[in-house]
Recover the amino acids of this structure.
């Protein structure tokens, strides 16, 4: 299939309605990554969708309550360094004219033959799955999803208690038993990563007076795909803070301490205005 702007029909799953912002359902960032990974490997079978680089989430894609699908586009090109750059776009009607709205962008590197994902490059410094000692706060999942991350039940992935430490968070995750498709067999169930992002959001709320949402990250590496119905652990480390942005690393492990995936350079901001326009 050739590169360029390609029409895309986005299938909407019933549980997407539980992923809300400002009273409206929006496409989760983890689903944007899934859509772009699926399209990238369809157009360029040589890409390694287990590695996502220079990822950016530009604007929310709102999900109407009664819709079964959404129309969209992907825009795909080969970058100068050989990576594949792919974007998720939609068309918005504005009175007498329409304009293209960008929702997400990912760079995928090519697969290196006979070489697994390089987990030594740009990985978080603290990959110990054990909870840090000396928690400064413990937040019950029920309270967290009622007051701090007000998502519906399908996205209440954090379990039991989220432990907050100085500059970090540690918690348990559970992936719901929902069917996965061939792409998720490679990059895993989207729910554990979504839950890890909730942990980063709650950690960030302790430092700022807004609800931080992900706007991008430097690199995601999937070492092992997370599975539906299984339990995991996540550890989040806050690296930096400015007036309008927080930066984190995070990792997901299983209960035996095996590393499943990492994100480095996760950027979170107040998106109440900019991402909705």
């Amino acid at each position: 299939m050739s590169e360029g702007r390609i029409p895309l029909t986005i299938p909407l799953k019933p549980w997407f309605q539980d992923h809300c912002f400002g009273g409206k359902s929006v496409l989760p960032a983890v689903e944007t990554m899934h859509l772009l990974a699926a399209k990238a490997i369809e157009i360029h079978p040589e890409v390694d969708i287990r590695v996502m680089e220079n990822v950016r989430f530009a604007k929310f894609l709102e999900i109407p309550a009664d819709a079964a699908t959404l129309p969209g586009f992907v825009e795909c090109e080969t970058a100068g360094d050989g990576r594949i750059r792919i974007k998720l776009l939609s068309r918005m009607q504005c009175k007498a004219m329409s304009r293209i709205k960008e929702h997400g962008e990912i760079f995928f590197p090519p697969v290196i033959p006979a070489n697994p994902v390089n987990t030594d490059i740009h990985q978080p410094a603290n990959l110990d799955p054990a909870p840090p000692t000396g928690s400064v706060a413990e937040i019950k999942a029920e309270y967290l999803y009622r007051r701090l991350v007000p998502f519906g039940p399908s996205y209440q992935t954090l379990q039991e208690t989220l432990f907050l430490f100085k500059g970090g968070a540690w918690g348990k995750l559970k992936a719901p038993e929902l069917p996965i498709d061939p792409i998720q067999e490679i990059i895993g169930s989207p729910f554990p990563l979504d839950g890890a992002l909730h942990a980063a959001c709650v950690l960030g709320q302790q430092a700022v007076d807004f609800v931080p949402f992900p706007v991008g990250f430097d690199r995601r590496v999937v070492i092992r795909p997370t599975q539906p119905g299984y339990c995991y652990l996540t550890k989040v480390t806050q690296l930096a803070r400015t007036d309008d942005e927080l930066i984190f690393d995070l990792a997901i492990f299983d209960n035996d301490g095996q590393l499943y995936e990492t994100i480095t350079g996760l950027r979170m901001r107040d998106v109440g205005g900019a991402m909705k326009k």
Q: What stands out?
A: The two ends are 32 Å apart (CA to CA). The mean pLDDT is 90. Helices lie at 29-43, 141-148, 184-187, 190-205. The longest helix spans residues 190-205.
